Amino acid sequence: SDPVRLAQYEAPNWLVEDVHLTFRLHPTATRVTSRIRFRPNPDSADRGFRLDGEDLKLLSASIDGRAVEPRIDAEGLSVDAPNDAFIWECEVEIDPKANTRLEGLYMSKGMYCTQCEAEGFRRITFYPDRPDVMAPFTVRIESDQPVMLSNGNPTASGDGWAEWHDPWPKPAYLFALVAGELRATSTTHRTSEGRDATLNVWVRPGDEDRTGYALDALKRSMEWDERVYGRAYDLEVFNLVAVDDFNMGAMENKGLNIFNSKYVLASPETATDRDYELIEGIVAHEYFHNWTGNRITCRDWFQLCLKEGLTVFRDKQFSGDVRGHAVKRIDDVLMLRARQFREDAGPLAHPVRPEEYVEINNFYTATVYEKGAEVIGMLRTLAGPEAYDRALTLYFDRHDGDAATIEDFFACFQEVTGNALTGFERWWSQAGTPRVTAVTHWSGDVLTLTLRQSTPATPGQPQKGPVWIPLATGVLSPDGKEVAPTQVLTLKTSEATFRLEGGIWRPSDGPAADPLPASVEPAPILSLNRGFSAPVILDRKVTDAERLILLAHDTDPFNRWEAGRQVAKEQLLRALDGGALDPAWFDALGRLVSDDSLEPAFRALALGLPSEDDIAQSLHDAGRTPDPARIHAIREDVLQGLAEAQAPLFRALVDALVTHGPYSPDAEAAGRRALRLRALDMLSRLDGGDAAAEVFATADNMTESLSALAILIRRGTGEAESGTFFTRWYDDPNTLDKWFSTVIGNAAPDEAVAVARRLTALPEFDPKTPNRFRSAVGALSANTAAFHHASGEGYRFLADWLIVLDPINPQTAARMTTAFETWRRYDGDRQGMMTDQLRRILATGPSRDVTEIATRLLGD
Ligand code: HT7
Ligand code: ZN
């Protein structure tokens, strides 16, 4: 297919005044009638009339009551339209039961539900399915299902029917309908503007006792958005529905959020601390879309980061407020580096605002979401928190009801800052992670810092320009005292120098600094990019001794953790080269991890080593070829060394951090469990897994059961526990998913593919359910040493299943094909095996979704 291009945007010819839809639900033959009032768009001179539509059986069509015979093609229809406003009516038939793509109207365990973002509505009826066509919707549902929901407020209902009206103009991608046997857990919320809203969390019968946390998270999100952004809810009801078959996490349909049940249902016995955290964050994210996405939507899909980056930034602020900013930031940066930096470094790299796409579903990426959120964060850092608040208020006031662009959003910042940010724009047009080198010079009383930036070439963008890089910077004395507090130094050009005099940094136009001469000692220690204020890769010569001082004393918790991380990375790289580990590192880690004045969650993070994938990327960045088997083995050796060096500490932590009393998912309790379970992992390297087996046998919560199971499987001793877990949770889809992912994801590199083949042959494995597919097949591609096994069986296993999945569910298949994105890092044999599998997939004539990803991955 031809790509869609940002540069070719044209306003719609026709706008929609209002829409009436009637659904006569039937599993295999649902009838949808539409009555749509069109009016000419004054911003377009073209009066051609075309509607999008896919896989629809058109039964009748009329314009102003007169039957018409449209020209139908694979992507929609066209018909000669009047010159002025008119009413389009049509009836179509669709087959929800056959819809395994899970886009449009489909069935999940006997329940009807919809997914319309990005282009699913065109699989429900003919419509101008583009985000800049917004209209109020009135919906009538006729069915024998006891609960029938759509967007907006309920207006009337009777036996076998229900009507809904959504007064807020919305694009079709926010349309939703759900019908089924559902049970609600409800509460009310009085908004800051004095309106009452009923909040319902709808689930299948039997799941009602797992809804409390999501409902509470929703209420807290509503209060937070009122308090922090001054944004209140605007309908009489807010419905949230959990479904088991879902392509992504959740969907922000106006007044009717639909969620993957994995991100709603929680009880201590079935959900981990991480599940609770994700539920809270995703509930908040979808709710926050009510303003950033729904009230103000996107003009076109190229502007996706306008709603996604901004909403991710908002949900991160919320989670930071609830759970603590330092730990949240470290978690977020771990994820950013693991997913977005990796994407930016590979063949799928694209700007936060892409310039073209073949299949828009392929652009719901870490770059659009996570780097998009970083871009908003940098705007806030540069403008300052007050100006940020004013810019957002201006944006909400000015664009409420609009389908907006990034330029519209940025203009609000320019207005409140007096155009102070001109030059920042490259952040959304340029792909690739900027690299910053930093060189210091210490004269004895003046510290000079020279920063240089460059961004590597990415597909379609061989040349890069400088971006604005706000680096929050502090300075410590060699004995660990802070001598200059955090100040933001913004690098706007390829190179700039700053001088620290009297505790204040100033731009310097003097000559660029030379590297620190070894004779001038002791120099102050720089703490650069505090809080990870800019999403860049820092390249700087720092000695282990300096890092250990930062690890022990930095006042910025993020950089404290980062110092430990960098030391760990260097130690691992040294070990890979056959070098000895520095005992000072184990001692420093031991001191940090046993420091009771620090939050347990922070200490748990400090104990985490870079992943095998991180190490592979670091080697590749250094111009070397990673060997996944060796990385796995050496990393395990290092962990063994650490366990032996700090055995008493780990034993003590496992004993001391037992939680007493009833389980609570709050951040404090979760942090204690996280530290205890890290220590348990260490201990298992010394006691053969006895303590972990004990934890598994006695745990009263899923966090501990599942971690203990993972530890035992890693030690190769968890067979009995695995069987116990399977038998206990056999009937619970979300919990059985955890079994699939834990058993496959922790299997030894030489065995994992055989294990994965065995588990995917079980009757419980169903590729039609995305959660199950991701849990099993995705776990193998996330098991780095197994996926990259020299036999190539990991690659073959993934490709085999992608070929099965693609005709069933192309969106999920395409997303999972991205596991091959690192192929260029590896040796010739592995490169050949990975590209062979991609070509094998392409030879099957796959969907547009998979074709686009596989072709971009190959780069030919
Ligand atoms: N806005 C949504 C993104 C989305 C999606 C969700 C579920 C299934 C398919 C989807 N395609 C796109 C989710 C969000 O970012 O909030
Ligand atoms: Zn979103």
Give the number of helices: 27
Strand content: 15-25%
Multimeric state of these chains?
A: single chain
Radius of gyration (CA) equals 28 Å
Structural notes for this entry:
The protein is of the alpha+beta class. Among the domains are: 4-181, tricorn interacting facor f3 domain (Immunoglobulin-like, Sandwich), CATH 2.60.40; 297-429, Orthogonal Bundle (Neutral Protease, domain 2); 436-534, Aminopeptidase N, middle-beta domain (Immunoglobulin-like); 730-860, Peptidase M1, alanyl aminopeptidase, C-terminal domain (Zincin-like fold, Alpha Horseshoe). A hairpin with a 2-residue loop joins strand 5 (57-63) and strand 6 (66-67). Helix 3 (304-323) packs antiparallel against helix 4 (325-344), helix 13 packs across helix 14 and helix 15 (647-656) crosses helix 16 (667-687). The longest helix is centred in the C-terminal third of the chain and has 21 residues, at 667-687. The protein is globular and about 90 Å long. Bound molecules: (3S)-3-amino-4-(1H-indol-3-yl)butanoic acid (HT7) and zinc ion.
